[in-house]
Amino acid sequence: HVQLVESGGGSVQAGGSLRLSCSVSGDTFSLDRNCLAWFRQVQGKERERVAGLWPGNGGIYYPDTVMGRFTISRDNAKNTVYLQMNSLKPEDTGMYYCASRRGGYCPNSAQEYYDWGQGTQVTVS
Fold this sequence. Notes:
- This protein is mainly beta.
- Helices cover 0% and strands 50% of the residues.
- It has strands at 2-7, 10-12, 18-26, 34-41, 48-53, 60-61, 70-75, 80-85, 94-102, 115-116, 120-124.
- A hairpin with a 4-residue loop joins strand 7 (70-75) and strand 8 (80-85).
- It is globular and about 40 Å long.
């Protein structure tokens, strides 16, 4: 069983920055061997993947809406995944969730991720 705990959310003015952290723990779970992602959810809408990180050097995904502004990274020694968010816009407001999926397949759909954190709220005004 994998546990994920997000932190770092808050309120910020448009143009500002935030860094979200996701602490990952669990038996036999290795950050660099599994799929990691950040999702955003706005009330009444489905969760949208805003960053994906493949195992090893498999690649990184960002949708056009955050490309060039968001950066996902991981620190294997600290078992932590980060989401650096710059040039924030009001439309970035939402609940942000960290998610993981064992193996090398990193889908776009939230339904295909096995483990989730509790979420951290980001509000941009």
